[in-house]
Amino acid sequence: MTYAKLSKELWKDRKLLTGFILVLLSIIIGFYGKIISIAKFYEPIGLITGLSIWAFSWVLLFIGIFMVGWETVKLMHQRIHHHVKKTAKDTYEYTKKLPKKGYHYTRKLHKKSMDKLAKTSKAIAENIKND
Fold first, then answer.
1. 44-88 pLDDT tens trace
2. I need a labelling partner for 112 at 20 to 30 A (CA). Which of 50, 74, 101, 129 fits?
3. Taking the model in full, what pTM does it have?
C-alpha cells in the first residue's frame, strides 16, 4: 500500500477519527469545566459540577489518546516499512545496473583507445612512406 493511498484511507478509519474527536472534545469540555469551577467557586454544587466535568474531560482525553496513539504507531510503522522497502528496491535496481554500465564503459574506452592507436599507426606509416 502506498503512502498516498494510506493517507487517503486514514480519515476513513473510524477508530482514529473517533480518537481525534475525543481529544478535541475533552479539551473543550475541560475548559468548560474550569470555567464553571472558577465562576461558581463559592457554590458547592457548581464547584462539584465543574470539577466533575473537568475530571470527565481527562477520562475522554486518555481514551482519545489511546485510540489515536495505536493508530499513529501503526501509521508510522507502515510509513517506515514503505520507505525502507522502496529504498532497498531502488538500491537493488541501481546496483543491478552497475555491471552493465561498467562493461559498456570499458568497451567504449577500449574502442576509443583502439581508434587512437589505429590513427597513430596510420600517421606513423605515412611518415615512413614519405621519408
1. 888 888 889 989 988 988 888 888 776 676 776 788 788 888 888
2. 129
3. 0.47
Nine-digit cell at 11? 480519515
Within 13 Å, how many C-alpha atoms sit on residue 38's CB side?
6
Cell of 20: 481525534
Rounded-to-integer distance, Cα 55 and Cα 34, Å: 10
Contact 54, 33 (CB under 8 A): yes
Report how far residue 33's alpha carbon sits from residue 64's, in angstroms, rounded to the nearest whole number.
18
What is the C-alpha separation between 114 and 11, in angstroms, rounded? Answer: 65
Total residues belonging to the chain? 131
69 Cβ partners below 8 Å, 6+ apart?
19
Q: How many CB atoms lie within 10 A of CB 98?
A: 9
Which cell goes with 78?
A: 507502515
In this structure, are residues 86 and 65 in contact, taking their beta carbons and an 8 Å threshold?
A: no
